[in-house]
Amino acid sequence: MEMQIGCALEQALLLTPKALALGAGWGKGRMRPLGALFLAALLTGAAAPWPDEPSRTCFFQMLSGGDSFFCRGDLEVIYPELGDVGCSYIPKCHQYRERISREWGSPRVRYPQADKNKKYVLMLVDPDVPSRANPRSRFWRHWLVTNIPGANLRTGDVKGHVLTDYVRPTPPPRSGYHRYQLLLHEQPEHEAITLSPEERISLGSWAMESFVKQFRLGSPVASTQFLTKYHQD
How far apart are CA 48 and CA 232, in angstroms? Predict the structure, then answer.
């Protein structure tokens, strides 16, 4: 009996590679919903969705190598059903790639270490336009919000001055995986941050580094990214 439960638990954890890879992240509420369902079923004796039932199984893959190094500071980006997608691939199952591109609105972005007395700048960019192999139009600006109170970031409520409305991740067909990078900066006091008329006209080929330097934003206090590609590829 103990061996059967142990094997079942091991199979359940295979569905939550992010939780498994982060280890201590379990205590931070970063466990995937499907993994939580598995464990609940095991503990209550209810039937659980096993890997031989593809319609109910979803695998979440963590980023590795250089892509994982971008993730720092425990910044969480939370979409419906998926939970925190930071430092992971968006899975194709349950039409998640299509839904993130066509259905869901802006995510909740949570930074538990935010200083309640400070304000922050949040950017979401795609550096892989039109593709990672040929990023001639980087950076594509998907979201830019300034004056975000630290207290709001602690709860994931992104409220501030929107310079660029949220644009869903929409990788073109056959362009491979795109990185969608979120960078969070502390906003200098009394700094009025704006986009130039030229920047407001176009989202692509944004000189993000120049923008950061112009408004003295410095290095991000936290950053994360997720990867996805065209939903039919």
Answer: 29
